[in-house]
Amino acid sequence: MQNQNIAPSSTSRDKPFVIVTEVGTRDGLQIEKTFVPTEKKIELINDMIAAGIRSIEVTSFVSPKAVPQMADAEEVLAGIAKRSDTRLSALVPNLRAAERAVRTPADALVLLCSASNTHNRKNLNRSVDETIARFPEVASCLLAGANPKKVIGAVATAFGCPFEGDIAISQVLKIATGYVKAGATEITLSDTTGMATPVNIRALVRAVRAELPNVDLALHLHNTRGIGLANVLVGLGEGITRYDSSMGELGGCPFAAGATGNICTEDLLYLLAESGYETGVDLEKAIAIALKAETILGRRLTGQVMRSGPRLRLHAADAVATAAG
Ligand code: ZN
Fold it and tell me: Going from the N-terminus, what domains does the chain have, and what CATH number goes with each?
């Protein structure tokens, strides 16, 4: 199930492995109005790799006019001290983006479509059906040549839309099936504006699994209504082993008011470790990265474990054993 180039190399093979994809420099920074210098973005990503994060959504090949913060996509990717076991990915919203992305060191590229027509028009300026119709040409561009890229399909607003409300499961399945037909091997179900709940996470994951049993599934969750990590627990219960998160709980959506941060990387790492999962990531180093990001941005971030630190372990003989140890 796990992608070979980010499969765990740890010795903790008794614990289930969860892949944490850091999206802070993409989802997190895209709404920041002040341009973060390219070398600072590279520094944060290199720190993440040193902390053990093996999957990073680095940037987006969106038009620099639409999102000036992402104008340095090529330079950031070229500047990363990449390891062979680390997967670098980026968003490609259209064919022009794909043509730029194939010439970079990115391993995987993420196609984008919202399940909501209204959100998709605001984001990509076309309907859902028009977007699906263009999947093959975008994916073909990424899969062609001597160094084909892995193709990931992201379904935005999969759990609800701020303009249209509830989203029909059939609409998500239509988009996901379009991705797979175009060559995608991984689907990300994105809760773009924090409308996922334990009930709709369970229902949608089961429906996509039933329709597309051979595809790897990931969850991209936002903590807009404070239940992001509760939704992770539901995802874990459904066997999902891939989650997107942002350092310090950075994040948002430039086209959806009130869409606050992604679930927080350090808080997610803490939850996973304390629930008996292996991530390969050093939590203390992840906290240091969130604090550095706070300094770079010059404002307080909302992650919680970055303030409190991990819990104290007393090692008492009669202590309640945690699932992690
Ligand atoms: Zn997001």
Answer: 19-324 (3.20.20.70)
